[in-house]
Design brief:
By secondary structure, this protein is an alpha/beta fold. The protein has three domains: about 70 residues, no CATH class; about 270 residues, Type I PLP-dependent aspartate aminotransferase-like (Major domain) (Aspartate Aminotransferase, domain 2); about 120 residues, Aspartate Aminotransferase, domain 1. About 45% of the residues lie in helices and about 15% in strands. The longest helix is centred in the first third of the chain and has 37 residues. The N and C termini lie far apart (about 80 Å). The mean pLDDT is about 90.
Length: about 500
């Protein structure tokens, strides 16, 4: 071997050694963080810094030359320190959270293998794994002969539903576009997710053509108002094509009555989509699946395992009972990827069903989590979170200074909605001014909560109801003692307001 080749080998080996040393030092840092948040409830959920302070603390710029492992690891230590610990038992801020070691293991291996989920050729194991996992979920929904795929988030899955519902109504749209088609509209609950309106805007339908259906005191779509609006839209010259039914609304956790809505969509020939991104996991439990009774009658469904199933972010799925519509509605038959004369069965090449080309492998982290947990224990985990929500709602109802939002005293999902009224405001006439003052209480408590890092919990207004706490339970490890902590901590932080 000549000297030049030997030198190249040494450089290559040094590069490999440098990378290995980096990982060997990074992984223990990660495990220390995991140990802290999973075994020590007194650890901080967040070490909050304002943006200008964060900019000073971490050097985000990229230099012309390489940075040493020591400097990168020092920065990554700060990344861990100042990031929100979503796996912490006191993280209740969003519709995801918790920590599962097997799910993390699947996510880490996914990144190491760095695959793309479009053909069996480049993802043989993951193609089969996806088919198996999604097949099990299709059966739970009742779409036994349907089709499914992972999507980059629930919002994108909802957009798939809008696009396919429109395609089924007017197949010509795939080739000729919107030109010459009638003015279309779709319907969703006034409490439904904003992605429906965003999807309509993105797909050229226009946000104004998303008709918002009234809801009852529990936030559920009123079927009579849905049918009334469908008839009105037809009379106005619209072509209705889809109804979005919510299974677990974002704020309230409401489940729209699927069975009654299906009666209406079948009567009018409309596509029925169930947005179960948040609450769809009730299908895993024989004791909870009544909440989506009739879902087998829907045409499609969104379901995010990174929510109540606690898979690592992101892990979202789209399902449809129509076996071929994903391929028919989206395929472009790129000859460099989806050749039909391959040496294996090309029907396993699933990529053309997607509007993406490269598609991240999302199935492995769900498979490792679900495989390690088992179906029966996963059902118990889901039920445990619902039980925690019930416990917290009852605790708020009987604790001085706490008041459940009217109509939401009995949570349908794991969303618990309540006000905290500090001592200085109790026993007073509840005038508009009083309510305006109460609206500012969560803002100040949230500020203190974040600055002290003890807990993270969201708040928001809803209609004419001023800011209230929206607790969401997404961690399988949460207990009734954690719910006790929530009440005590909010009272502690707001007692002097």
């Amino acid at each position: 071997m000549d000297a030049g080749a030997s030198q190249e080998e040494e450089i290559k080996r040094a590069k490999i050694d440098n990378g290995q040393q980096f990982l060997e030092r990074l992984v223990p840092m990660m495990f220390d963080m995991i140990q802290d948040i999973t075994c020590n409830r007194d650890s901080k959920v967040v070490n909050f810094l304002h943006p200008d302070e964060m900019q000073k603390r971490i050097n985000f710029s990229i230099a012309d030359g390489p940075c040493s492992n020591d400097k990168i690891l020092a920065s990554l230590k700060d990344v861990i320190k100042y990031s929100v610990k979503t796996g912490h038992p006191h993280f209740y801020n969003q519709l995801y959270g918790g920590f599962n070691a097997h799910g993390l293991g699947g996510a880490l291996l996914t990144e190491a293998l760095n695959g793309s989920q479009y053909t069996y050729e480049v993802a043989p194991v993951f193609t089969m794994m996806e088919k198996s996992v999604l097949g099990d979920m299709l059966k739970l929904i009742g779409f036994n002969d349907g089709d499914a795929m992972f999507t980059p988030g629930g919002s994108m899955a909802n957009m798939y539903a809008i696009n396919l519902a429109r395609y089924q109504k007017f197949p010509v749209i795939k080739e000729t576009g919107l030109f010459g088609l009638p003015k279309m509209c779709l319907f969703t609950s006034e409490k439904g997710h904003y992605s429906i309106s965003k999807g309509a805007g993105f797909l050229g339908l226009g946000m104004d053509n998303v008709k918002k259906v009234k809801t009852d005191a529990q936030g559920r779509m009123i079927p009579a108002d849905l049918e009334k609006q469908i008839l009105e839209c037809k009379a106005e010259g619209y072509e209705p094509f889809m109804v979005n039914c919510t299974a677990g609304s974002t704020v309230i956790g409401a489940y729209d009555p699927v069975e009654a809505i299906a009666d209406i969509t079948e009567r009018h020939g409309l596509w029925l989509h169930v947005d179960g991104a948040w609450g769809g996991a009730v299908l895993l439990s024989d004791n909870l699946k009544y909440k989506v009774k009739g879902i087998h009658r829907a045409d499609s469904m969104t379901w995010n395992p990174h929510k109540l199933m606690m898979a690592p972010q992101q892990c979202a799925c789209f399902f449809t009972k129509h076996k071929d519509i994903l391929a028919d509605g989206h395929s472009a038959n790129a000859k460099y990827l989806f050749q039909q004369d391959k040496f294996y069965d090309p029907s396993y090449d699933s990529g053309d069903k997607s509007i993406q080309c490269g598609r991240k492998v999302d199935v492995l982290k769900l498979w490792t989590l679900w495989k390690s947990t088992g179906k029966l224990q996963m059902a118990k985990n889901i039920e445990s979170m619902f039980n925690c929500a019930t416990y917290l709602s009852k605790l708020c109802a009987k604790t001085e200074g706490f008041r459940m939002v009217p109509g939401l005293e009995n949570p349908e999902c794991t969303n618990v909605c309540f006000w905290y009224i500090p001592p200085s405001m109790r026993g007073q006439e509840e005038t508009p001014e009083w309510w305006a003052r109460l609206a500012k209480i969560p803002m100040e408590i949230k500020k203190r909560m974040s600055q002290q890092g003890t807990m993270m919990c969201g708040y928001q207004p809803d209609g004419d109801r001023v800011n209230f706490w929206r607790m969401v339970i997404t961690n399988h490890d949460n207990t009734e003692q954690d719910m006790d902590f929530v009440v005590k901590e909010i009272a502690r932080l707001g007692n002097d307001l």
